[in-house]
Amino acid sequence: MHMQLLHNNKVVIFDRTDFGSSNLSLPEGKCRHNDEAIKVDCTAHSILYDVATNTYRPLMVQTDVWCSSGAVNSNGTLIQTGGYHDGERKIRLFSPCNDEEEICDWTELSQNLTVKRWYSTDHILPDGRIIIVGGRSAFSYEFFPQNSNNNGFFYLPFLKETTDPKEENNLYPFLYLLPDGNMYIFANQRSIVLDYVKNKVIKEFPKIPGEKRTYPATGSSVMLPMKLVAGDLSPVVEVMVCGGANGGAFLQAKSGVFMPASRTCGRMRITDPDPVWVMEDMPMGRVMPDMLLLPTGDVIILNGASKGTAGWENAIDPVFYPILYKPNEPDPSKRFTVLKPTTIPRMYHSAAMLLPDGRILVGGSNPHVRYNFTGVKYPTELSLEAFMPPYLSPQNSHLRPSILTVEGPISYGQKFSITFTLGFSKPTKELMVTMIAPSFTTHSFAMNQRLLILDVVDVQQLSGFTQIITVCAPPSRNIVPPSYYMVFVVHKGVPGHSVWVKMQ
């Protein structure tokens, strides 16, 4: 249900705790004694997955993390907030560690959130704090750590205004930090810019045409790659929203009628003086899609269903085909490409995320109130898959760069260099360097996801197979908050394995 990549190339994966016991035992006789389903639960509802070795270690969450949210802070620690019942106001931390030297696990703080947060969204801020926005019947936002001046929450009428009767359709809002330091917030069909310092909405945008877009009429969204130019503190920002469901689809699904999912995507350049949504049609309709930014600057859309909405038993007809979207393709009819399908339905409570080697990790799917493995049309799915985008096909292996060193530390507005090799000695200038934030993915939205195309200053040939590329780091904390990021060298549309850098 929830996944977060950490800067040690391990992935924290977790699910709700109140379904009863899992198949994984907690180590060293650990047990939870506060479970709703069973009196004593000695099983794990979270794991730490090691991508390189394809192994995992069970972890212990102490309270229910069902439908919660998270963001990685400036030190690389996952700040994880909210959930259900005993977990609805909890704040949990998970810090990466070297398992050979120490065993890291979840830490739950005695400090609580000021408001119950179930289906909220988190985002890291330029000062390293985390903002937590919304949640069921939570028309407000708050911060972690809290301001010394204000220990409470801040009412946001926009969240109440975007709530549909009986359906909501404004949960898990889409959040993007903007280059001016303010926050873009999208819920249902509307979006605003919030000055969270002054608790003031400073801009409202046109409604996106067509269907509803946020939970449970769940579409997905990305902020398209920001192309940086050295010294420019105001790059163009464009938001893309795809999929969703018609108003009423949630109530219809409850009565066994599954309405077709939305086929539309909208793009809006929110930095324009008068922004408007430009609409496009996907090859097929999709509700509960996952949208991820690829190192190439393209977008992958995968998972979901073609009818219904999010929620228990609320969707049918899974969509097996991923879609590649090229935002810079001038011909709109050529932007979408249908890719090789999976055979596993990935519907409600599945997740997907970008890995450091350019693959997409896909896992889960549980459209039922309990873990139903048999006797249902869409059984609970416990597997993980790795989806290989076209750039990882064997015929591209000779184009793939391999990073040797990064000259750091990486500081705002400063130049840094990456030494890499190619499988042939011919010099090339067809290079791009991208910086990507690892996302916290749940319920079809990758929180904190952002991709920067760095300004290339120079490329030099060092030896037969080795080159060095010099780029400018992002110029401000508003564009890239301090934290860990994956840096990819992309050669002729083919990325190599990334390296982690810490922006500070």
TrEMBL record:
Keyword Hydrolase among UniProt keywords: no
Name used for this protein in its record: Galactose oxidase
Record-annotated Glyoxal oxidase N-terminal domain positions: 1-391
InterPro entries: Gal_Oxase/kelch_b-propeller, Gal_Oxidase_central_sf, Glyoxal_oxidase_N, GO-like_E_set, Ig-like_fold, Ig_E-set
Highest taxon listed in the record's lineage: Eukaryota
Xref: PANTHER family: SECRETED PROTEIN-RELATED, WSC DOMAIN-CONTAINING PROTEIN ARB_07867-LIKE ISOFORM X2
Statement: the UniProt record of this protein carries the keyword Signal: yes
Species in which this protein is naturally found: Anisodus tanguticus
